[in-house]
Design a protein that fits this description.
3 strands; about 15% strand; about 110 residues; Ybab, Chain: A
Length: about 110
């Protein structure tokens, strides 16, 4: 089995590093928003799944323990939904970048 040209291998590695840097920039710039409780809790994250903003409507706040538990559930639901949307955005971005490579076995 012949070895690939070393220069070509270095070029491919350089392209892979460049693509990784582009992907990281794109993920940081991708903003995903999700809400729960009919908009009582909303969250904004980037494609790296870093929470950028968490907004809680004043009507979501209550004085009883049950209200606090409900609020905690709404926050978790909003963050989880934003994470799912981020996964979809990441998958779409990776698919687009990989299609331009024409690598065997990745079709």
């Amino acid at each position: 089995m012949p070895f690939p040209d070393l220069g070509k291998m270095k070029e491919m590695m350089s392209q892979a590093r460049e693509m990784q840097a582009q992907m990281e920039q794109k993920l940081a710039a991708t903003i995903i928003e999700a809400e729960s409780g009919g908009g009582m809790v909303s969250v904004r994250i980037n494609g790296k799944k870093e929470v950028l903003r968490l907004k809680i409507e004043p009507t979501a706040l209550g004085a009883t323990t049950g209200d606090i538990e409900l609020l905690e559930d709404l926050i978790a639901a909003a963050i989880n939904e934003a994470g799912r949307r981020a996964d979809e955005a990441i998958k779409s971005s990776v698919s687009g970048l990989m299609s331009g490579l024409n690598l065997p076995g990745l079709e």
